[in-house]
Amino acid sequence: MAEGVVPEVTGPLVRPRRLRRTPGLRRMVAETVVTPAQLILPVFVREGIGEPVPIASMPGVVQHTRDSLRKAAAEAADLGLGGVMLFGIPERKDATGSGAIDPGGILNLAIADVVGEVGDALTVMSDLCLDEFTDHGHCGVLTPDGRVDNDRTLELYAEMARAHADAGVDMVGPSGMMDGQVRVVRDALDAEGHTDISILAYSAKYASAFFGPFREAVASSLEGDRRTYQQDYANATEGVREALLDVEQGADLVMVKPALGYLDVVRRVRDAVDVPVAAYNVSGEYAMVEAAAAQGWIDREPAILETLTSIRRAGADVVLTYWAAEAASLLTSR
Ligand code: PBG
Questions:
Q1: For residue 204, which of 267, 250, 156, 148 has the smallest C-alpha distance?
Q2: Considering only CA atoms, which residue is closest to atom 14 of ligand 1?
Q3: Ligand 1 binding pocket includes 211 (Cβ within 6 Å)
Q4: Cα 282 to ligand 1 centroid, rounded to whole Å
Q5: CA separation, residue 317 to residues 29, 186, 233, 271 (Å)
Q6: What is the pLDDT of residue 184?
Q7: Is residue 156 part of a domain?
Q8: In sequence order, what are the beta bridge partners of 42?
Q9: Which candidate, 303, 334, 333, 296, places its Cα nearest to that of 321?
Q10: Structural domain contains residue 187
């Protein structure tokens, strides 16, 4: 070739920046998208209040009345969210969490309210755990010497599953980290003919400091911690094991929780199972962003979208987040 026809390469031959030049290019090559349908909004409903009660450690999140919960669910359906996850806060608690099973208990009433409001337009999910209903705040019943009794707790989870099913729930979320809980819930549902109700298993749930604000949200009576049943945050392989066990037991989706400190676990679980994977962007993760934004230390909306995108990028198919409704609006207005 004649000299001078091929110009000498002076700069880098490969320029990844080319695909970052315009918003259109960036949008075209974005590997990860977040859509409203992939977001699940956790909501709290409290017995015996006349007005929604703000949760101080979770600015923007409230304990709902039954009425305001119905409105929030209708809004979630209008926004096209993936679902709502219901948590109940009873007026009275006892040692066995009997309010969880009582058909007139707040969570069971709220499930029926929300299903009545949204029908099939939104997936209605329920937290299946005793901790909001026990006076000691643990996720199960205690032995006489104060340990959490796995197998007696399973019997109550079975009853709770039946109560949620009778109230019309679409999907139950067993979150107590008792061994064998998914199997027991599946059997209890099937035995009553509820074979179509699905299970979102809180599979890899870690004993985490990032649940802190949630304890205020549900007026938790817990003293101490949950380290004899929730996982040690040092362990990732064990999280994969828990997810595999839950799939074996009939989980329709598995969850990793919290999300941000556990993105490696999200990825490993995503690669290990063949069911959808959820990740729970928990109360403390929410509170950190809100607190920093309130100080003017970070830019709130971009921080929310970056957070949710990172959880999806790690491998979560769906994300539980207190920002679900707001994020849906942000995503559709972009
Ligand atoms: C248990 C439950 C907890 C959360 C969801 N389900 C609390 C716990 O295990 O201590 C935490 C959610 C959050 O922090 O946002 N019912």
A1: 267
A2: 211
A3: yes
A4: 8
A5: 19, 22, 22, 12
A6: 98
A7: yes
A8: 85
A9: 303
A10: yes
Residue where the block lists tokens 């079975």: 158
The residues assigned a catalytic role are 205, 257
For 222, the domain range is: 36-333
Q: Is the CB of 129 under 6 A from ligand 1?
A: yes
Query: At residue 258, does pLDDT exceed 60?
Result: yes
Nearest residue to 166 (alpha-carbon basis) of 194, 195, 198, 124: 194
Calpha distance 192→12 (Å, rounded): 67
Give the global pTM: 0.96
Among 30, 129, 124, smallest CA distance to 73 is for 124
Mean per-residue pLDDT for 10-39?
A: 97
Q: What angle do CA 108, 110, 116 make, to 5 degrees?
A: 110
Ligand 1 binding pocket includes 150 (Cβ within 6 Å): no
Residue 275 forms part of a structural domain: yes
Q: Does pLDDT of 227 surpass 80? A: yes
Q: Which atom of ligand 1 is nearest to the CA of 42?
A: 15
CA of 12 to the centre of ligand 1 (A): 50
Residue 6 has pLDDT above 90, yes or no: no
- Residue 310: how many other CB atoms lie within 10 Å: 18
Cite the beta strand spans of 258-317 per DSSP E: 277-281
Answer whether residue 206 is part of any domain.
Answer: yes
Ligand 1 pocket residue status of 214, Cβ below 6 Å:
yes
The CATH number assigned to the domain holding 294 equals 3.20.20.70
- The domain total for the chain is 1
How far apart, in whole angstroms, are the C-alpha atoms of residue 128 and residue 107? 10
pLDDT of residue 8: 80
In angstroms, the CA 34 to CA 301 distance is 14
